[in-house]
Design a protein that fits this description.
The complex is a heterodimer. By secondary structure, chain A is α+β, with helices and mostly antiparallel strands. Chain A has a single domain, classed as Alpha-Beta Plaits (2-Layer Sandwich). Chain A is globular, with a radius of gyration of 13 Å. By secondary structure, chain B is α/β, with parallel strands linked by helices. Chain B has 3 domains: 208 residues, FAD/NAD(P)-binding domain, CATH 3.50.50; 106 residues, D-Amino Acid Oxidase, subunit A, domain 2 (D-Amino Acid Oxidase, Chain A, domain 2), CATH 3.30.9.10; 64 residues, no CATH class. Chain B is built from 18 helices and 17 strands. In chain B, α1 packs parallel to α5. The termini of chain B are far apart. Classes of the chains: A alpha+beta, B alpha/beta. The interface between A and B is large, with 38 and 55 residues.
Chain lengths: 91, 436
């Protein structure tokens, strides 16, 4: 099963106006060698296109791994505003 | 101005337990929960021990079962060491646990909503869909919380932080100087897989009320320090795995690939069979693994921290929610005493730490404080032993005409070649020192 298909099973309420994850400085990502956020994120939120870091926050499971693993503390990580983000049906 | 005696941040087991204990002492309590309902953001593997709930909820077991808050009573627990295509098992089954349940498998969205209902019945206001953004400070002391709602300030005499593993507000309260580090948490992923009730009953040899648990070490983790699990729910199974972030970040493997490894291992694949792809939900969460050394400052003026936010998890025994419920109760009892004394300050809240030290929580965390670092530093425990022990078991149990004395020497030779008898002894000693 592809990860996209798995994420599709989940229930989310996306805050279109306000992403809850932001890259603070893209130049820092450019220098970052391992880009461990990409490896460690269980929802494939992060994607490097060679120039910038795409953050697909809509599929975020709010675990916090990216924030913990970022060697440069370059992710402005917040939980989504109340009632937004992942809403587990089973948990 | 909205005012409560106590605001509890987070509607998980720790926060709800704290709120219930406070309300029973007649305090005015609000729980602020960012999810749509309590449990909507909460994840665990799925084993909930009954003992801490018995102390705060009357007829807890009967209510949980009758009101369908829990899945199955765990009557059998297994440890699997996965080798290359094989397994070495250790397990214990005790049907007496049917009559006096020790633990239940749970799905948190269901369980937390049930717990929240009990807490509401005790008079607590649970404010859902609302996130605490920051604290209201006056003269260096916390006087309330600022929420995501318009004009969402809530004033109070004390705050209990039960925000979970990501210590965002614990840091804002000044109780943790730095964020958690990659060696202090495991990233765990899990799938809830649809499986008909009668199929589960047959496959795991249980009735509809009883369930089994597997903790799974070995082949799936690609040499990384991690734990897999498979638990039976009523009509689904929870399967997942967690590895330390510190280990994962050096390897080019995604967390969900490790879960696929686990699901595709022939032994596990045989169990879940055709239901493998009947995934209902895919979840991820951090598990505190730092243990004793990662605990933050647990109290300040007008504030206490409990549950995962306090890193109170015994990962060796996969216990966390019982620490959460008990630490929430102890934090609340500390506050009640402080209110009675008429002084809520560092001085009166300090006894929270003493209470934790007198309980199983800090006793257990202290006991195991050096075990995780030992396991992490000694790759043999994960890379070598699961596969070695599987090969030895196969050799020992394969009857092919080799005299037993020769089989024994072959086994001793394998141990000598692959680890060395002194190394083996050293590892056993380290393990013993870690758990004694």
């Amino acid at each position: 099963m592809r990860i996209e298909d798995k994420l599709y099973l989940n229930r989310y309420r996306t805050n279109e106006k306000e992403p809850h994850l932001k890259i603070i400085d893209e130049k820092v990502c450019e220098k970052c060698e391992g880009k461990p956020c990409i490896i460690c994120c269980p929802a494939d939120v992060y994607e490097w296109d060679g120039k910038s870091m795409e953050v697909k926050y809509e599929g975020c499971l709010e675990c916090g791994t990216c924030r913990v693993v970022c060697p440069y503390k370059n992710i402005d990580w917040n939980y989504p505003k109340g009632n937004y983000g992942i809403l587990y049906k089973f948990g | 101005m909205i005012k409560f005696d106590v605001v509890v941040i987070g509607g998980g087991p720790a926060g709800l337990s704290a709120a219930l204990t406070l309300a029973k002492s007649g305090m005015e309590v609000a729980v602020v929960e960012k999810g749509e309902y309590a449990g909507s953001k909460n994840v665990m593997g799925g084993v909930l021990y009954t003992h801490p709930l018995l102390e705060i909820v009357d007829n807890a077991v009967e209510r949980m079962v009758n009101e369908k808050a829990v899945e199955r009573s765990v009557i059998e627990q297994n440890m699997f060491l996965l080798g290359n295509g094989s397994v070495l098992k250790v397990g214990h089954r005790n049907p007496e646990w049917k009559n006096t349940p020790n633990a239940f498998t749970v799905l948190r969205a269901k369980f937390d909503q049930w717990f929240a209902k009990i807490v509401e019945e005790a008079g607590v206001l649970i404010i859902t869909k609302t996130k605490v953004e920051d604290f209201i400070w006056e003269n260096g002391k916390i006087k309330g919380v600022i929420t995501s709602r318009p004009e969402g300030e809530i004033y109070c005499k004390a705050v209990i932080i039960a925000e979970g593993v990501n210590p965002i507000l614990t840091m804002k309260a000044g109780l943790r100087k730095e964020d958690i580090k990659p060696n202090m948490a495991a990233v765990a992923v899990k799938e809830v897989i649809d499986m008909p009730e009668d199929i589960i009953n047959t496959a795991f040899n249980v009735d509809s009320k009883s369930g089994v648990t597997y903790e799974i070490l070995g082949e799936w983790s690609e040499g990384m320090f991690g734990m897999g699990f498979l638990y039976t729910n009523k009509d689904s199974i929870s399967i997942g795995c967690g590895v330390l972030i510190e280990e994962l970040k050096h390897r080019n493997i995604k967390p969900y690939q490790l879960l696929d490894n686990l699901k595709n291992h022939p032994i596990i694949s045989d169990i879940i069979g055709e239901y493998k792809n009947n995934v209902k939900e895919y979840l991820a969460h951090l598990i505190p693994e730092g243990g004793y050394y990662s605990i933050p400052q647990l109290y300040g003026d007008n504030v206490l921290v409990c549950g995962d936010a306090a890193m109170l998890v015994n990962s060796i025994h996969r216990e966390g929610s019982n620490h959460a419920i008990t630490s929430g109760r102890l934090a609340a009892e500390t506050l009640v005493d402080a209110f009675n004394k008429g002084e809520i300050s560092k001085k009166t809240l300090k006894s929270y730490v003493e209470r934790l030290k007198e309980s199983f929580i800090l006793k257990d965390l202290e006991k195991y404080k050096d075990l995780m670092p030992t396991m992490e530093k000694n790759q043999h425990f994960i890379e070598l032993y699961p596969s070695l022990f599987n090969r030895l078991a196969t050799r020992f149990l394969t009857v092919d005409g080799t005299p037993k004395t020769d089989v024994e020497w072959q086994i001793i030779d394998s141990l000598r070649n692959e680890r060395g008898l002194i190394g083996l002894g050293m590892d056993a000693l380290k393990l013993w020192k870690g758990v004694r």
